[in-house]
Fold:
Amino acid sequence: MKNALLGLVLIGLFSFLPAAAPIRLSSQSLPFTPKEFYIATVTDQRPEQGPIARLALVFNQSAQPVDLEDGVASHFRQFINQNLKQNRSLRPIAMRIRQCKVSETANGNRVTGTFTFAAAFELLGKDDSGNETSTRLTEYRGSANYTRPLNQLSVIEPTIRQALVASLKGLNDYMNREAGQNEKLAKSLNVTIIDDSRITDDDTVHYNPSRKLTWADFQATPRQGSHYAAEVFTSFAYEGKSSVKDGIINVNLTLKGYMLKNSSWGRQGARNAYSLNHEQRHFDVVKIIVERFKRKIQPDSLTLDDYNSIIQYQFIESFREMNHMQEQYDGETNHGINQAAQERWNQKIDAELRTFGVKK
Structure:
């Protein structure tokens, strides 16, 4: 009877063992000062929330849950604010804790432990509507194995702290290396536009104010079934390249208004100066659209995050605008038959070309 009672007392004692004290990271002087960023926020994004550690604390007992003081995000944020110099005029970075776990197993009085840690770093910003945005930059992953006596916990705190410091140093190295050359970290944008106005002898006539169309450029066979006197194939395109230097995105665009000789034709009986002028004006309309397009893709109309998509969108819109203007031109002049309307369009086109400095 006494033995049974003693067993009950022991079970009760083990059931009500006091909870282990939470882990608190010691202050540490960090060997670097960020010049490109500050940590604006720390969030806990671990798949399994709750205490970060299960520690072997009592002989022959299961590991007990132990957490960082005030939780992962709050404690790491406090450590960073106390030990990392924060210049809030720099780029704001969000630290996302993806993994932070200590697991231990005991064999008698000897404990083996494993620590795994992962954090992602994102650049914070705002879009044109003022909504917050985040851009993934880099991540850190680390792990450590250790052994300790059952009654000594001193190895755990520095293991966690060293991983946190290593992740911050990794971010600092990344930012110092990438700040001047990575588009994600660029601070401003320049646009350089070049007109492809080459004069060549091949099938393509590039728009050049000093190189007007001639009937010799109309080399295709007249289209069967067409009642028009002539038809010119004109269009425009662009090629773009970008590079980053000293934190500035340099966008270089080459714009090309062009006419294709092998797709353009004119009937022999209609090859006169009046008809040629009508076709030249189709080419001039292309140039007007190119000049309007230029003004839609200046730096103040683009964003660092999405400049390429904006340029593509404006190109598509300008292409539609070109087709609409060409149809309007042919509709109002009745394909050049209405001479009064043709003269009005001649003056209208010349006036806009002058505003762009294309025509003097």
User: Anything to note?
Assistant: Residues 1-17 have pLDDT under 50 and may be disordered. The first strand starts at residue 37 and ends at 44.
